[in-house]
Amino acid sequence: MDFKEQVIKYKGRIVFIRLSMPHFDRTLKQYVEDEACFMFVNKGEVGVRSQEDYFKLNQKVGMLAKCLNYFFEPTDNQDACNDGIESVGIFIYPSLVKDLFEFEFDLTGSNHTLDYNLKQVQIDRLLENYKESISILLDNPKLADESIIKTKLKEFILLISKSEEAPSQLDFLAALFKPNEVEFKSIIQHNLYANLSLEELAALCHLSLSSFKRKFAEVFNESPKKYIAKKKVEKAASMLKADNQRVSDIAYEVGFDSLATFSRNFTAIYGQSPSDYRLS
């Protein structure tokens, strides 16, 4: 499978997209103000990592996401991706909502909330049929005139708002464009063992690298590099005593990108190699 991107735009903005690729590395879905999206996976399996969540998407499970930074990651199920990865995305914007429903859309006009920023959604028959109809348009873009695009977007909003049991479509949409704030400390704790670089952790926190380092030192009274390495090694130490996993497997499980890096950090903290520690 070669890389391929197919899009349908409405008034200059992408509303439907299909991406096909043989493989991918961790990729940042960067924050776009007032953009929400839904993602189907047609082929393969995709991991999603956000501020407080990690889950997998496949043909049976899609994702509804508010506007924030998160990462798409390869999963450990390589067999699921032998034929490549293919996804279909739907994007919604407040300005588009005003046009679709022909009313003044005020984000502050509803007190309804959604207790998530990203959510797994089971793909039922209604959503599966909807996805197929979008695939037909992506395969035949000349069919996608303005009236059809508006109809398909309104249909999607109706389907999702009903599944979320919102009081109304307006209440659902207003909540969808209000990301929930997550505490800095919680973001770090939820992603300690994820093998994220400091730049990637900063992106999850919506901070520059320099601002992230300052904030980290304020919250944890230690540099991020030193604190994170220590926590990873401490978890590895408990695993070394608790089970018979290979040292290399433990190293990768706690988030080190190589056995050499793990061993160097472990020895610096415990004064002996991981193997010697296990035998002590």
Defining key terms:
single chain, 280 residues, alpha+beta, six-stranded antiparallel beta sheet, four-stranded antiparallel beta sheet, 11 helices, elongated
- Computed over alpha carbons, the radius of gyration is 22 Å
Report the average pLDDT across residues.
Answer: 91
Q: Which descriptor suits the 3D outline?
A: elongated
Alpha plus pi helix count? 11
The largest sheet, given as strand count, sense and whether it forms a barrel, is:
6 strands, antiparallel
How many distinct beta strands?
10
Q: Structural class, from helix and strand content?
A: alpha+beta
Distance between the ends: 50 Å
Outline of the structure:
The chain is of the alpha+beta class and 280 residues long.
Written overview of the protein:
It is built from eleven helices and ten strands. The chain is an alpha+beta fold. The mean pLDDT is 91.
Topology:
Elements: E1 4-10, E2 13-21, E3 27-29, E4 36-43, E5 46-49, E6 54-57, E7 61-65, E8 70-73, E9 85-92, H1 94-101, E10 118-122, H2 125-139, H3 146-163, H4 169-176, H5 184-190, H6 198-204, H7 209-220, H8 224-242, H9 247-253, H10 259-270, H11 274-279
Antiparallel strand pairs: 1-2, 2-9, 3-8, 4-7, 4-9, 5-6, 5-8, 7-10
Helix pairs in contact: 2-3, 6-7, 8-10
